[in-house]
Amino acid sequence: MNRPKTWLLVFVALIWAASWFQGAINPYYFDILITIGINIVLGVSLNLVNGYTGQFSLGHAGFMAVGAYVSAAMTIFLCPRWLAACGGGSTAESALFLGALVAGGFGAALAGLAVGVPSLRLKGDYLAIVTLGFGEIIRVMVQNTEAVGGSRGLSIPARETGLFTTYLAAALAVYVVVSLVHSTYGRGFLMVRDDEVAAEAMGINTTKYKVMAFVVGAFFAGIAGGLYAHFKQFIHPEGFGFLRSVDIVVIVILGGMGNTPGVILAAILLTILPEGLRALAALEALPVWLRGMIQNRMILYSLLLIGLMLTRPQGLFSGGGKWLRWWKRRQA
Predict the structure, then answer these.
(1) 231, exposed or middle or buried, with CB in 10 Å at 0-12, 13-18, 19+?
(2) For the whole model, what pTM was predicted?
(3) Cα–Cα distance measured from residue 265 to residue 252, given in angstroms and rounded to the nearest whole number
(4) In total, how many domains does the chain have?
(5) Is the pLDDT of residue 281 over 80?
(6) What does 4-57 look like in DSSP terms, one character per residue?
(7) pLDDT of residue 83 exceeding 60
(8) Average pLDDT in the 88-94 region?
(9) Could you tell me the pLDDT band of residue 45, with boundaries at 50, 70 and 90?
(10) pLDDT at 220
């Protein structure tokens, strides 16, 4: 594990250096960069459940909502008291923000444990329906809780999410998932995915491995929700609905199930693609009919996804493993 740790430290050092110049980045491009980082965390964490463990969860946005609201509630209701007790200062604010993110992650992990223990004995479509129902329960509960804004939404006073915290979370999510899957314990995830009946016949507690994957994935989804809340500075229950879960599932499927580098590339592509279509629609040199089609960019975006799924059902970047094996052979 020394090499992954080295790469993690190098990446953390690079993003720390880049964060000093984030003030010079155009706000529009900065928004895209932060969204890419959040989508990487969401895609990689869901890939642990859907890709490596072979389950099918449609409630990832529910865990994201739990993390967003728990971290936002801490920032709004508890952090001012703690800052007053600590005497204020930017260091105290950063520490409290990180604490709020971790609290949101643990809140989402507890929610993942609560839904995972009773439901992960199910398989396939039944599990998808249960997780979908859980996500809707979370959304409706938040929508009817006046303490966190209810249907009006919740405003966060300060934008704490920056380049360093976002990509640090993304790097940690990738490192934890890859290290866990390639560990001795993590091989149980792959056994559950490949043949759950055979795994149970060998004495493996498949429910334990599925719950573990669910809890770890929910934890990082909660972290992503906290980053999202403290970047947008306003959250609403409708932002964590069924369509948000579908967006995350599409990232995993497009990148390739169980393919972490592919999921990262898919998260980047699916974040940039709608914005690229927006810029393309503004070009006056294009014919009117073509500009009109591109202006309905979400329809074109959906057609592109359908085309990709028809031509590459195994995932757009699923062939990355072949190149990695070829590179390792060359290095040997």
Answers:
(1) buried
(2) 0.87
(3) 10
(4) 1
(5) no
(6) HHHHHHHHHHHHHHHHTTGGGS-HHHHHHHHHHHHHHHHHHHHHIIIIIS----
(7) no
(8) 65
(9) very high
(10) 95
Nearest alpha-carbon partner for 169 in 50, 36, 1, 49: 36
The reply to whether 91 falls in a domain is yes
256 belongs to a structural domain: no
Alpha-carbon distance values, 168 to 175, 189, 223 (Å) = 10, 25, 11
**Domain residues for 36?**
28-244
Cβ contact 317:256 at 8 Å: yes
- Other residues' Cβ atoms within 10 Å of the Cβ of residue 329: 8
Report the pLDDT averaged over residues 80-85: 59
In a domain, 194, yes or no: yes
Mean per-residue pLDDT, 262-269: 90
The confidence band for 169, taking pLDDT boundaries of 50, 70 and 90, is very high
309 domain-assigned: no
Residues 6 or more apart in contact with residue 284 via CB below 8 angstroms: none
The residue whose two tokens read 């810029």 is: 279
Angstrom distance (rounded) from CA 122 to CA 129:
10
Q: Which of 59, 239, 230 is nearest to 142 (CA)?
A: 239
Angle between helices 27-47 and 242-255 (to 10 degrees): 80
Residue 91: how many CB atoms within 10 A of its CB? 9
State the DSSP string of 198-234.
HHHHTT--HHHHHHHHHHHHHHHHHHHHHHHHHHHSE
Distance CA 210, CA 213 (A): 5
